[in-house]
Amino acid sequence: MEVINLKSIGVIPARIESSRLPRKVLLDICGKPMIQHVWEKAISSDLDDVIIASDSQEVIETAKNFGANVYLTSQDHQSGTSRLVELSENIKSDLYINIQGDEPLISPYIINELIQARKSCDSRKVFTAANQNCTDEDYLSPYVVKVVTDNIMDALYFSRAPIPYFRNRTGSIRPLKHIGIYGYTYEGLQCYKSSGPSLLEEAESLEQLRFLENGEKIRVILTQYESIGVDTKEDLTRVRQILGSIGGNL
Asked: Is residue 241 a part of any domain in this protein?
């Protein structure tokens, strides 16, 4: 059943501490902090509101300075999803979209696709995205998450391993590369909160497996869009080059 009047909030969880690239959400890209680029992409989507959620006063003040709505979270969080749970218990919405604070090239169209997926399917509590742009290098890399789905695009499994395994490549199946953006209903976030870390989640270091291990379905949206997460200095240089070549904006 299609949901007509659906309120959707985009949440950008932002922590200032990062082991591989310290303070990365505040690093300058073409004259703006990284998180401002993410926010600008998000507000150009169909979301009703976009909120930057952080336990860092410096991040909060930076976000206020460029006009963002903000939410100061507790410091007792191990993940962005946990921050989102806290926010959802204080700010009500039909859909919360978790937008990574280190993806300044995120497309607003992916966000819109998740909103439409929730409108079209009120039986799912968790939504995410994937594309077929999975190169052989991606397929073999433990740093690129793959997903396999059933015939109606509900996730069967996510893994850093190469899945599905191809005994031969004569079939038409193409590997799906997971894109780390999620949409949750309030009930989906409560499921995350009440379950606690699962065995497969800890084994693969993929928190979405918590839902699957607890019997919760995840609807996967097939998209053509890509995004680049900034985890290293090399990633940062690449993103600066891409945005610099087009004047700082996509």
From this structure: yes
